[in-house]
Amino acid sequence: MRTIATGHIAVLCLLLGGCATQYRTVSQTQVTTVSTKKGEEIKIEKAPYIAFEEVIERSPNVKSVTRMTDLKGEREPSFFALAPSGDEMVYQALEEADGQALMNLWKAPTSGGTGMTRLTAGRYYDLEPTYAPSGTDVLFASNRSSETPRLFRVRADGAGGITKLTQSEAADRSPSCTSDGDMIYYQSKPFNSQTWQIWRINANGALPTQLKEGVRPRTSPNMKQVLYCAQDRKSEKWKIWVMNIDGTGETQLTTGTDSDDTYPSWSLDGKMIVYASDIGKDSNGKRNFDIWTMSADGSMKTQLTTNGSTDFLPSYSADGRYIYFLSNRGFNWDIWRMEMVE
Fold first, then answer.
1. Residue 273's beta-bridge partner residues?
2. Are 196 and 186 in contact (CB under 8 A)?
3. CATH code: domain of residue 287
4. Does the pTM of the predicted model rise above 0.85?
5. Pick from 194, 191, 215: which is nearest to 40 by CA?
6. What is the layout of strands, in order, in the sheet containing 322-327?
7. How much is the pLDDT for 17?
């Protein structure tokens, strides 16, 4: 029987790009809530996602990709936000202290430096940060005051204390500020509710108002519309919607029963939307989440990343030149930045 040397097999695998050893399942720690006798309490789950060993991006629509964090698995980053100035970002990161898992907020420069600093501390789950339009404050969800997550505010420079914004018994998550800083939109799950809902409050936490069922609201730069995701009741797939700022005129932007379309975010001029979808396949025919863009009306859908790993949580840079995203390419979760082909 003819044999092939191990080195030759490796070369053949690289040429074909199809060896199973290049794929691995990498879990992500996710925070959900469950209804208990005490109310909506945090529950930690491990969700498996496909990852690809190579970090290279071969998409014709992407000029380059840059790893913005290199945590080597010591901390697991997840939701992040870019400062309005464009010079820094804040992200939530999972770590362990004395055998106990916790999530705090960290800051990192977008210049690629190594000056990562802790913004919050404590044995809490600090989640889903976003900057206020002024850049002076960071809003986030946390279980700091109870087992139920609520919305909080902290200064972006870490000075001063932490202020609680929502007071209800509902689980409040994923805040987003209007560009004038006057209103905060967020997702909320009241006790024993089966679905998440979009709510809004004044910047000081007053006058909570329910709008629609859905998650992860993102207000448009002109303050006229809100992007959000809602689950199709028949297919149970997540789709992207847009509505007027007052909750009227809801319009579905992505369709189909064979994919999840999630984590939409506006470009700074409001003309484009970047999001994650698993409708595409990589060069080996495997389904995975990639970064896509579309026009604000849902037309001109374009796939950007094609790496065999999981790419999601995209966000435009302040100058519109880059898109930042979370990825497990290379088998570790990190925040990446892509430069698009013009």
1. 266, 294
2. no
3. 2.120.10.30
4. yes
5. 191
6. 62-67, 334-340, 322-327, 311-316
7. 44
The amino acid occupying position 74 is: E
- In whole angstroms, what is the distance from residue 296 CA to residue 270 CA? 7
- Asked whether residue 3 is assigned to any structural domain, the reply reads no
Domain housing 36: 23-340
Rounded CA separation 126/144 (Å): 8
Question: Which residue from 223, 214, 120, 233 is spatially nearest to 174, judged by alpha carbons?
Answer: 214
Q: How many domains does the chain have?
A: 1
Over its C-alpha atoms, the chain yields an Rg (Å, rounded) of: 20
Give the chain's end-to-end CA distance (angstroms, integer).
53
The answer to whether residue 13 sits within a structural domain is no
C-alpha–C-alpha distance, residues 142 and 104, integer Å:
9
What's residue 113's pLDDT? 63
Beta bridge partners of 315: 324
Q: What tokens appear for 300 in the block?
A: 């001109």
- Report mean pLDDT in 10-residue bins for the chain, 342 residues: 34 42 91 84 92 94 95 93 96 88 94 83 96 97 93 94 92 97 96 91 93 97 97 94 97 95 97 96 87 98 96 95 97 97 88
CA–CA separation, 337 vs 342, rounded Å? 16
In a domain, 10, yes or no: no
173 found inside a domain = yes
Q: Which two tokens stand for residue 170?
A: 């509902």
Which structure tokens are listed for 13?
A: 């695998």
CA distances from 40 to 34, 52, 108, 189 (A): 5, 36, 32, 8
Q: What is d(CA 159, CA 282) in angstroms, rounded to the nearest whole number?
A: 45
Q: How many other CB atoms are there within 10 angstroms of residue 101's CB atom?
A: 13
